[in-house]
Amino acid sequence: MVEVSATKEAKRRLATVWFIGSGFLFFLLFILASVGRFGGDADEAWAWFLPTIMPTLSLIIGVYVLDVMHQGVEDGSTDPFFFRLTFWLSISYLLAVALVLALPNVVFLTSGVTVFEFMNQANLWLGPFQGLVAAAMGAFFVKKTDGS
């Protein structure tokens, strides 16, 4: 991975990960709902999915709005380790959400566990994981830089 030297570039990379990843997950859920994987309860799947990605996407958009209004963090250097940590936490989280959407369709078809039971069980570990990602994203996006 290339070392990140500017906060603006790091924000752009994280936003790219989140919007591409979320777009993929949205498309995956749309396809699964379209082929009837959730039966008549596709609304329940969307109700589970949206809270898993919208808080972070809202944070990213909010920071970009502040930046456009020139009230965000000034552009400067960023800690490469902290950027990589936030980057990989984000990718790991988005992959975990993808697995929750895909696994019931591959593994649990014969186990008797419904898709929604699996999604609800996944919230036990996805919730804390999302908290870690949100903390890293929030701290990264609002971190004051010293310009060095």
Could you describe the 3D structure shown?
The two termini are 21 Å apart. The protein has one domain. Helix 1 runs parallel beside helix 3 (80-106). With 148 residues, the protein is an all-alpha fold. It contains four helices and no strands. It has helices spanning 7-34, 42-68, 80-106, 115-142. Residues 1-5 have low confidence and may be disordered. It is elongated, with a radius of gyration of 17 Å.
List descriptors.
single chain, 148 residues, mainly alpha, 4 helices, 74% helix
Tally of DSSP β-strands? 0
Order of helices and strands: HHHH
Beta-strand fraction estimate: under 5%
The span between the termini is 21 Å
Shape: elongated
Summary, kept brief:
The protein is an all-alpha fold and 148 residues long.
Which SSEs are present, and which pair or pack?
Blueprint: H1 7-34, H2 42-68, H3 80-106, H4 115-142
